[in-house]
């Protein structure tokens, strides 16, 4: 998102850093908001953070086709889209296992995990640790909000 707030940018950079640290040199790795993702034929989005596991499948060398996890940091101008139409597009991706929404206005993280039989399970985190089952890793909520007024 162009012109994002300081808190938005700080949360995104914290997430990328913490995910990279948690994932080490394994087969999964995070990418930031410049990574374009195709969610439907001729429809593309730029998630705040995306994690790929295994080899990246790319269209034209610069568009990711196989995200495992997507994180969006909510802002007033994008929250309805992130929760509604954008999440609907993401749910159509067979490789996507988790969708995470991070508030920048309160300490609250919502996690949607795709169950084995297809439905999405919602969990909410206010403190402690966000476990990411698709990655076999997690991040501390304090680390996500480090350097913000919520930290």
How would you describe this protein?
By secondary structure, the protein is an alpha+beta fold. It has one domain (6-144): tt1808, chain A (Alpha-Beta Complex). Helix content is 23%, strand content 36%. It has helices at residues 6-23, 79-83, 85-91, 141-144; strands at 28-32, 36-40, 43-45, 49-53, 58-59, 63-64, 69-74, 98-103, 109-114, 120-125, 129-132, 137-140. The strands form three sheets. The protein has a six-stranded mixed β-sheet with strand order 1-4-7-8-9-10. A four-stranded mixed β-sheet has the order 3-2-6-5. The longest helix has 18 residues, at 6-23. It is globular. It starts with 5 loop residues before the first helix and ends in a 7-residue tail after the last helix. The mean pLDDT is 95.
Brief description of this entry?
With 151 residues, the chain is α+β, with helices and mostly antiparallel strands.
Topology, pairings included?
Elements: H1 6-23, E1 28-32, E2 36-40, E3 43-45, E4 49-53, E5 58-59, E6 63-64, E7 69-74, H2 79-83, H3 85-91, E8 98-103, E9 109-114, E10 120-125, E11 129-132, E12 137-140, H4 141-144
